[in-house]
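Encode chain A's predicted structure.
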Amino acid sequence: MRSFASDNNSGVHPLVMEALAKANADHALGYGDDPWTAEAANRVREAFGSECLPLFVFNGTGSNVVALGLMTRPYHSILCAETAHIYVDECGAPVKMTGCQIRPVQTPDGKLTPELIQPYLHGFGDQHHSQPRAVYVSQCTEMGTVYTADELRRLVDFAHQHGMYVHVDGARIANACAALGLSLRELTADCGVDVLTFGGTKNGLMMGECVVIFNKEMQAEARFVRKQSAQLASKMRYLSCQFTAYLTDGLWLRNARHANAMAIRLYEGLRELPGVRFTQRVESNQLFLTMPRAAIDELLRSYFFYFWNEEADEIRFVTSFDTTEADVDELLAKCCRLLCNRS
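Encoded structure for chain A:
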C-alpha cells in the first residue's frame, strides 16, 4: 500500500542502494578511516563550503543531540518552536543528553522570528536561571513551511547578537532548497548557521544523517561529542557512501523537486473539493488540511496517514521522492468520491 503518512515510509533510491552494494566489498578500516567516508566528506564540503566539518551519524535524533551538545552546557536553555521535533517527537532525548531546559515558543506556522524569541531572552548572568544559549530551527518546519534565506539570516544575526548559537535541523532541507531555488550552501553557511543536520533519510537514503559544523570553535571537540552521544558508527562506510550518491549529479535536488511537485499536484486537486480547508501554506512536500471526519475515517481504510490535530479533524499528507502521479491521482479520486457525493 502506498503511504502519504511520511517520507520516512518511502523506499531507498536505486542509486543509493547501488552505492551501498559497492561499499560492501572486501574489508575496510572502521570508524570513518575508509575511502568511502573520505569521498563523502569531500562531497559535503563541496556542497557547503571547504571549511565545514562533516560528521556522519546514525539518525536524526542522534544528530540533533550531537549538534546541541556542541553548543551547550547543562545549565543552558534551548529555544525552539512548540511544534519542534526536539520538543515533541524525540522522547526527551535532547534534554537527557544535554541536560538543558527546552523553552518552546508558540508560532502560527512553525517558524521562529526575533520578535517571538525576544521575550525569552532574560536572566542572562543570573545564577538562578537557565542561560539562553541555542536556537533550534527546523528547515522545512514541522508545519511544512520554509524559512527564506533572509528570514533565516535575520534570525541567526539576532541570536548571535545575544551570544547564542543556531542549529538547523535539516531533515527536509533538500525540499526547502528545491522550493526556494537555492543551493545547500546559500541556505545554511551563507546565512551564518552554526551547525546543520543534513538529512537524507526522508529523501531517498536508507539511514544516517550528517552533522555539518560551520562554527570553527566547535569543530575541535565535535568528534568527542559524537562518540559520547553513541553516534560513532564502526562500519561508517555504509552511512557515508550514501551521501556520495546523494550529492552526485544533483540526486538530492531531483528527489526533493519531485516530492514537492507531487505535493503541489495533490494540493491543486484537493483545494477544489468541497469541505477541504488547508491550515498551512503548501511550501514543501507536506500538506496540512481539514475535511469532514466521516471522509477521513473512510480514507483511513485505504491509506495510512496521520492526524495532526484530531479534535479539529486536521490531517497531514506527505509526498516522497517515489510518489507517482498515479499515486496522487488515485488519492484524489478517492477523496472526490467521498466529498463530492456529500455535497
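The chain has a mean pLDDT of 95.
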